[in-house]
Design goal:
The protein is of the alpha/beta class. Helices cover 25% and strands 22% of the residues. The radius of gyration is 22 Å and the shape is globular. 41% of the residues are buried.
Amino acid sequence: MFIEKETGMKTMKNIKLLLVLLALAALPSLTYADHSWNGYHWARTANPFTLKLGNNLTSADWQSMLAQTSQDWNSPDTFGTTSPLLTAIVSGSSSKRRCPMVAGTTQVCNGAYGNNGWLGLASINITGGTHITQGLAKVNDTYFTKPTYNNPNEKLHVMCQEVAHTFGLDHQSTDGSSQDSCMDYFSNTGANAGSALSTKPNAHDFEELNLIYDAHLDSTTTVAAMNALAASASDVTNDPGSWGQLMSQSANGRSSTYEKFHPNGSQTITHVYWTIEAAANCPACDHRYDH
């Protein structure tokens, strides 16, 4: 009698568990943003705050890409949300080619940086382990003047991504699939040259920004006031050797991250987006030495 009762109770528990599982399966699947760049963020005393994008771009084409990128990151309402981080384009304060960082800002530059294998890169200086103090985003005209990459969708994808790395965002995906976010590594080239997929942020990008910046406020700020610029403290140059040590690389070889430590205890972290050709040549190699 006891055995029959215990068996009946187990049967009822199993039926209840099955019903719960079926109910959960009927719910729509949810996707959560999880692409913070190691928790790196600008120190600030209030939200929202405005990050200045220094326009050092030498062509109207690239300037229009930066304007579109700024507008897209300032339009969270498209997805029915808000953003703690807004952008404002200001006159650049860097030399056009070297493009050193300027404290409290992100400087944006283009140039014919050479057949070195990279399409775009983003560098941030870090203090205290997580606080961004300055950033830069660069696009390489040596490749963007070639037919493979010289189309507005690929240019906008790379511009949008490199600028957003300086917010503290990492990639949503690096396998080449489109998440319809500029924070993936979909390639708007070849058969996809006419596609506008992955040229703008998506809802998960704004979700991640809110997760990063709503977690806490800081007692000080590393963001430059709108009427003030400070001198650069970065020695990252166009020489790939100045990027420091290779820390990580995507399986397909399109994305690498480098880290360099400075005598004052700060760090410079650099994301590099390699060309299709550089990645295909040797996905596991440090592409700085492929040429």
